[in-house]
Structures are given as structure tokens and as C-alpha cells.
Amino acid sequence: MSRLRLTLAGVLVALVTVVSASAAGAPPTLVGTVGPGYTTLVGTVGPGFTIALTRDGKKVTTLKAGKYLLVAADLSAIHNFVLEQESGGKLEKDLTKVPFTGTNVYSITLAKGTYKYYCKPHEATMHGSFTVS
Length: 133
Prior knowledge:
Strand order of the largest sheet: 5-4-1-7-10
Strand content: over 45%
């Protein structure tokens, strides 16, 4: 019986090691969120007019050049999420489109430069930017 426990423990350690190695090799994850509703006493209502790009729960202001996994969460049918490189390159990608709601996941490579993200229908008020070095 103790031999079985040792074998199972060895398998578990090997599995954890493989999973950890896979996670360590994965690109960092960025989360773009657009249009979450606002909370009232009766629940979440309205489209909300907010847009954000975060990494580990913190607003993105600078990143290192390289590969990233970008999760675009569109929570309103009247918004979209666009990522555009303003300087140093030619990236412009509609990560979500009106009237889509849901989540899209992209593997992206960010080169050095200045980037902006915005909602195309409401760009004047719903936008942000960051730099990649």
C-alpha cells in the first residue's frame, strides 16, 4: 500500500511540474475590458462607458516588447475594443466589434512604440494608451 502511495505521489509531483513549466512558458496575459455596466441596488444596468487594459489587475502604462495573450472582454453591444500602434509600426486590430458581446482571445506581438486602445464609436471619451520599450 505504501508503494502505491509513493507512486501516486511521484505522478502528482511530475504532473505539477509539467503544469508549472507550461504556465511559466506562457506569454503574459493582458485583459482589455470595454463597456461594463454600472451597479445599482437592482443589479448591473446600462452599457457603461468605460474601457481598460490591465495586467495582473493593474492598469497597463508600459510593457516590454514581446508576445502577449490579450483577452478582450466586450460587455456591451454598443461598444468595441480596438488596439492600434500609433508610432513605430502598423498594428490596428478590432478585437471586438459592435454589436458583439463576449470574450475574444488573441496572441499578439508588441513591438516598440506607442499604442492606444479605444472604442471606435465613442473614441473621444473611451480611450487609453501605453508605451512598449
